Amino acid sequence: TLFGRDSLLTAVMTAGWDGQLLGDVLRSLAARQGRTVDVDSEEEPGRILHETRLIAESSLFPGAQHRYYGSTDATPLFVVGLGEAVRQGMPAAEALPLLAAADRCLAWIDEFGDIDGDGFVESAPRRPGGLVNQGWKDSWNAVVDSAGGIVAPPYALVEVQAYVYAAFAARAYLAEALESGDGQAWRDRAEA
Question: Can you tell me the mean pLDDT for 153-178?
């Protein structure tokens, strides 16, 4: 199986030792990036998948689909991963083809990630039976109040907001490193 968040975090953490892994993960996820709106799989344009089962018969998802996109953090982490890959020496010829996927991730943040338009990226299932908590601890009972009671979604998890900030900051770096451009607009977006 391929997990978006876990694969990205592992590859980013090991990039100093093995830059090839991060490049492979980014290309693999970009090839499976969301292209359409599909309620069953929670696919949305620009969204990075949560999980794929490579054999449809082993699917845990409705309709024996082998991809599920119910992740809030994998999408900004993709952009963070591309920024780290370039920092670790990924050649521009390998990084430039991934830039469009990174920009689709950032578009997903605006169009689908910020569910209620408050500036924070939230998670909530798009279909009955979808993951309630689409962050790193994706158990249905992972988000509780101070008394231990389960909180209803949507959830604006603090780590997701940090990943979103880091994604816009990484895009600023990529603008300067790959496009000979000014990354200030992306930095301003991170700050906002």
Answer: 96
Q: What is the pLDDT of residues 173-184, one digit of tens each?
A: 999 999 988 999
Could you tell me which residues are beta bridge partners of residue 67?
52
Q: Please check whether residue 116 is in contact with residue 122, taking contact to mean a CB–CB distance below 8 angstroms.
A: yes
CB 34 within 8 A of CB 96: no
Q: Are 81 and 11 in contact (CB under 8 A)?
A: yes
3-state secondary structure of 71: coil
Q: Global pTM?
A: 0.92
As a whole number of angstroms, the distance between CA 34 and CA 30 comes to 9
Distance CA 139, CA 166 (A): 25
- Peptide bond before 97: cis, by omega within 30 degrees of 0? no
Phi-psi region of 103 (alpha: psi -120 to 50; beta: other; left: phi over 0): alpha
Residue 100 neighbours by CB under 8 Å, 6+ apart: none
Q: Which amino acid is at 181?
A: G
With beta carbons less than 8 A apart as the criterion, state whether 178 and 187 touch.
no
Q: Which two tokens stand for residue 16?
A: 């100093």
Q: Which helix (H) or strand (E) holds 191?
A: helix 184-191
